[in-house]
């Protein structure tokens, strides 16, 4: 395949020395002075990268694309567009669809839908248990060896709370280097839970979701992971106590990785005042003290990655009583800006760090070989161009998702995605997804 | 029969020492915390004036809200609160519509928002909302132009209950500054407790909450109250004791082992009743579980003002409706 090449002039990889990058045949063909000198540069499309930062294309380990089943909230196509516009070249799609992605057939369907849309590589996550009911293991090996090549398994939305079942899952996925991504929520401690349990829940009369319900499961799972010698990933870690539990486990050598969402880095439980269900999410928004701990943990590596938990919901599932509303928030198009706001601007993370937590580490956890790669010659041309100086105001209706449930509505955030490249092809150009 | 329709000068609010712009009620009454001290006292004194005004009438009705529509929107059964609001609105000559969730479009899956829009289209001036979900009246207030009055939402608040309790307390104890009031029972799930804590502390009373630790919310430390697990000790010399209803279904959540054990530790019997101040009163928002949180002897005995609370509920709700809606009346050219 020899299509037109792209020459990005003077963009700064990792925010360091600006240089030229020549993209052709799906890879970074040449960098620096070699780029413009290459014969393919002659008829290349020229992109002015002056003042822009270039990072490896972002990888989201935690996305809900809602297809099959809730195509009114999101589709693989609309979610892929949101991902491309957010700077992503790969997303992992959670299995809580209808039908559940718990068989080779469903994961292959999602994988193919993603490939047909072509804006972002869609890697399905397989359910750990049949129907995510927490009763018996789904056919994990069949999904692993399917065309979708599933390596990440999760019952996200629900916790694999049965300790024996969790042990078996952790053991079983060792055969194909899989990882269990646990939604850590002790179900009995969170019956009817609506928001973080604390001063605000007491005042609002909403049933509390105690931090300990997350921390207890993470502690248990780290011990199980040690015991069977497997690999654990903690989804959307949300409390200061969870940070301590993961830090202690890592210190003793547990093969555990953890993610934090952009909303847990920025928003507190105070947002529930007013009862707008756009701020209802699971796990819930926590306190300012938790936010400080999460940011510090992301900076020092106790938390490995940022994952969006992008969760589109149709308006009728959000414009309703708080306790009746579905939990979840849009995230794909705001994640990078929130990370810049909460981590880069305060000096907690440099651009190398952003590349690590939003691209390299999530690709490694998901065992992707074509994403999260260095920005050097011969590597896949999965890149995102960022204008770090730009500021923009979030408007849910203007996002590519079919749903509008962004908790950042009306907020002005730093950093804008100028372009995203998937194997050299521009998938998002100045806020417009390819093919639109 | 002739109905008295003369102007009612006794209803014209006398600002006295209070500056008028400080006694303006919020647009909606969603939380007892929305009322500052001056405003809360203004509601209570307005209730007193209304009670006096109506007491002197042959027909127990004032023309004040004639032509206004008050909708009772009850998503949760509550006969006593519903009829209390209904009577309050009728005594002010408002048109009252009751919209109960059961048997209506709501039980067929209509959303709160669609219900709100329906009421909006019908031109409701005030919506009295009872809902099993905390925060539903506040959400409703964003979707209707009329005034929303929270008549109890989930485990959040019940501000008019707190107002009627404060009204009752004032009648027996005078000013509430420094008065010690013990609130006992299922604080965790009680909207009555939340509203009372806010309003009574605004009015200067000292509130002590007594409950088993399992029925106190985590975060209660931030409330302007004392917390005690020792009912006897808390009762000594108290000016009032307010018993909360304990729902038997809480036992299935293992909040306490048995009704008998609860009753022993946190029930109000005659021995405990004798511990409060001689002038002290016994309150209960109803409906009571006789024999559970309160013995029949105490409920019906000396110092019990439980029945009076019900009567005061109508008066206080009249004051709330009057104050919320009369602002508009003034704007549109004076009382009819």
Folded structure, characterized:
- The complex is a heterodimer of chains A (436) and B (336).
- With 436 residues, chain A is of the alpha/beta class.
- Chain A has two domains: 6-54 and 378-391 and 411-433, Urease, subunit C, domain 1, CATH 2.30.40; 57-365, TIM Barrel, CATH 3.20.20.140.
- Chain A is 29% helix and 21% strand.
- Chain A has 13 helices and 19 strands.
- Chain A has helices at 33-37, 76-85, 104-117, 140-144, 163-172, 199-204, 211-228, 240-251, 262-266, 288-300, 315-318, 335-344, 351-365; strands spanning 6-13, 19-24, 27-31, 45-48, 53-56, 58-63, 88-93, 121-124, 152-153, 179-182, 195-196, 208-209, 232-234, 256-260, 305-306, 383-393, 412-422, 425-429, 432-433.
- The two termini of chain A are 23 Å apart.
- The relative contact order of chain A is 0.16.
- The model of chain A has no long low-confidence stretch (mean pLDDT 97).
- Chain B has two domains: 9-13 and 23-158 and 312-327, 3-Layer(aba) Sandwich (Rossmann fold); 159-308, Aspartate/ornithine carbamoyltransferase (Rossmann fold, 3-Layer(aba) Sandwich).
- Chain B is 37% helix and 13% strand.
- Chain B is built from eleven helices and nine strands.
- Chain B has a five-stranded parallel beta sheet with strand order 7-6-5-8-9. In chain B, strands 2-1-3-4 form a four-stranded parallel beta sheet.
- Chain B is globular, with a radius of gyration of 20 Å.
- Chain A binds chain B through residues 194, 197-208, 210, 274-276, 316, 319-324, and chain B through 111-113, 131, 133-136, 138-139, 153-157, 191, 194, 217-223.
């Amino acid at each position: 395949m020899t299509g037109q090449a792209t020459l990005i002039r003077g963009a700064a990889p990792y925010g360091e020395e600006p240089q030229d990058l020549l993209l052709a045949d799906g890879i970074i063909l040449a960098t620096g002075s070699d780029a413009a000198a290459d014969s393919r540069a002659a008829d290349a499309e020229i992109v002015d990268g002056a003042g822009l930062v270039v990072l490896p294309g972002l990888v989201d380990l935690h996305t809900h694309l809602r297809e099959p089943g809730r195509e009114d909230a999101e589709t693989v196509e609309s979610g892929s567009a949101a991902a491309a516009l957010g700077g992503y070249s790969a997303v992992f799609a959670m299995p809580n669809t209808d039908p559940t992605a718990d068989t080779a057939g469903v994961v292959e369907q999602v994988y193919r839908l993603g490939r047909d849309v072509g804006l972002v590589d869609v890697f399905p996550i397989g359910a750990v248990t049949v129907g995510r009911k927490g009763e018996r293991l789904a056919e994990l090996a069949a999904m692993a060896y399917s065309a979708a090549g599933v390596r990440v398994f999760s019952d996200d939305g629900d916790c694999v709370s049965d300790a024996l079942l969790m042990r078996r899952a952790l053991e079983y996925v060792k055969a194909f280097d899989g990882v269990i991504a646990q939604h850590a929520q002790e179900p009995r401690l969170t019956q009817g839970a609506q928001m973080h349990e604390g001063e605000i829940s007491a005042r609002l009369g909403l049933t509390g979701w105690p931090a300990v319900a997350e921390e207890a499961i993470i502690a248990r799972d780290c011990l199980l992971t040690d015991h069977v010698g497997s690999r654990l990933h903690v989804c959307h870690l949300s409390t200061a106590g969870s940070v301590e539990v993961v830090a202690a486990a890592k210190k003793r050598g547990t093969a555990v990785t953890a993610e934090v969402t952009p909303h847990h880095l920025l928003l507190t439980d105070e947002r529930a005042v007013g009862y707008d269900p756009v701020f209802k999410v699971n796990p819930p928004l926590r306190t300012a003290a938790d936010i400080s701990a999460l940011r510090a943990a992301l900076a020092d590596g106790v938390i490995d990655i940022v994952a969006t938990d992008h969760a589109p919901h149709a308006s009728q599932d959000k414009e309703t009583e708080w306790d009746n509303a579905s939990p979840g928030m849009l995230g794909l198009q705001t994640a990078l800006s929130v990370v810049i706001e909460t981590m880069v601007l305060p000096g907690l993370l440099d651009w190398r760090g952003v590349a690590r937590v939003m691209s390299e580490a999530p690709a490694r956890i998901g065992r992707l070989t074509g994403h999260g790669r260095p920005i050097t010659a011969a590597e896949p041309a999965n890149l995102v161009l960022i204008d770090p100086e730009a500021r923009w105001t979030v408007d849910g209706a203007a996002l590519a998702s079919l749903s509008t449930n962004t908790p950042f509505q009306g907020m002005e955030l730093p950093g804008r995605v100028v372009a995203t490249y998937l194997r050299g092809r521009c998938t998002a150009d100045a806020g417009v997804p390819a093919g639109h | 029969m002739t109905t008295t329709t003369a102007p009612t000068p006794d209803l014209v609010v006398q600002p006295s020492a209070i500056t008028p712009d400080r006694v303006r009620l919020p647009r909606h009454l969603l939380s007892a915390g929305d009322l500052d001290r001056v405003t809360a006292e203004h509601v209570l004194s307005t209730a007193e004036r209304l009670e006096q005004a109506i007491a002197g009438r042959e027909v127990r009705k004032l023309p004040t809200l004639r032509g206004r529509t008050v909708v009772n929107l009850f998503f949760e059964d509550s006969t006593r609160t519903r009829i209390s609001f209904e009577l309050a609105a009728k005594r002010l000559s408002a048109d009252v519509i009751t919209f109960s969730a059961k048997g209506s479009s709501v039980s067929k899956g209509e959303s709160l928002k669609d219900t709100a829009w329906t009421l909006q289209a019908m031109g409701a001036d005030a919506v009295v909302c009872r809902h099993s979900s905390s925060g539903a009246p506040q959400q409703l207030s964003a979707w209707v132009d009329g005034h929303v009055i929270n008549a109890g939402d989930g485990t959040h608040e019940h501000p008019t209950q707190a107002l009627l309790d404060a009204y009752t307390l004032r009648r027996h104890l005078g000013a509430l500054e420094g008065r010690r009031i013990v609130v006992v029972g299922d604080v965790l799930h009680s909207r009555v407790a939340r509203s009372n804590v806010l309003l009574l502390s605004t009015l200067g009373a000292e509130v002590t909450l007594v409950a088993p630790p399992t029925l106190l919310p985590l975060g209660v430390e931030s409330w302007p109250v004392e917390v005690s697990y020792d009912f006897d000790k808390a009762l000594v010399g108290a000016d009032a004791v307010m018993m909360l209803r304990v729902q038997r279904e809480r036992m299935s959540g293992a909040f306490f082992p048995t009704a008998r054990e609860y009753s022993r530790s946190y029930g109000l019997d005659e021995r405990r009743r004798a511990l409060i101040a001689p002038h002290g009163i016994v309150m209960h928002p109803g409906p009571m579980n006789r024999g559970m949180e309160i013995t029949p002897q105490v409920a019906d005995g000396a110092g019990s003002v439980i029945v009076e609370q019900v009567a005061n509920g109508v008066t206080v709700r009249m004051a709330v409706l009057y104050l919320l809606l009369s602002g508009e009346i003034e704007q549109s050219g004076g009382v009819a």
